[in-house]
Amino acid sequence: xxxxxxxxxxxxxxxxxxxxxxxxxxxxxxxxxxxxxxxxxxxxxxxxxxxxxxxxxxxxxxxxxxxxxxxxxxxxxxxxxxxxxxxxxxxxxxxxxxxxxxxxxxxxxxxxxxxxxxxxxxxxxxxxxxxxxxxxxxxxxxxxxxxxxxxxxxxxxxxxxxxxxxxxxxxxxxxxxxxxxxxxxxxxxxxxxxxxx
Length: 197
Hints:
This protein is an all-alpha fold. The chain folds into two domains: 1-50; 53-196, no CATH class. The protein has eight helices and no strands. Helix 3 (54-71) packs antiparallel against helix 6 and helix 5 (104-121) crosses helix 7 (164-186). It is globular and about 60 Å long. 23% of the residues are buried. Keywords: Cell membrane, Hydrolase, Membrane, Protease, Quorum sensing, Transmembrane, Transmembrane helix. The chain crosses the membrane at residues 44-67, 79-100, 106-124, 145-162, 168-187. Pfam families: AgrB. It comes from Clostridium gelidum.
């Protein structure tokens, strides 16, 4: 459905000479990605409003998306798998948050382990990205910088006594990035350097 709309829209833009015909596929792909991301994030935002968790969810999304953009990690094969997986994961986070708040030592231990995993590996070179050496190096550097900033914010928030639920949602964002990272490694969703040659 989304792909059909994207094709029609981009075709009209080509006919009107608003975009270069040679880049038609790129525009279709970009349009599909934007619409799919909007649908997924829109669903999560609507659920968060219904549950009264809008602020916590926004904080989670800012932390998660900032880091995920640089680390990459597991990617589903289809939009529907991605959509249901993402929404289900968010709902799971909502329902496990109370447990994690009550057991903050467990949350903190898993957070530290996640920080170490992301720091050591940095970025997964997913086949869809297929980064060259320089791009991969820059992505790892950016991921580690974001990780330092986010970890610093979390531990500063703990130090000043910020609402523990906010700290929990910030922490879960890093933990989720690490989990997706490890799933991609286990499923071998990455370009190995000697495979590129």
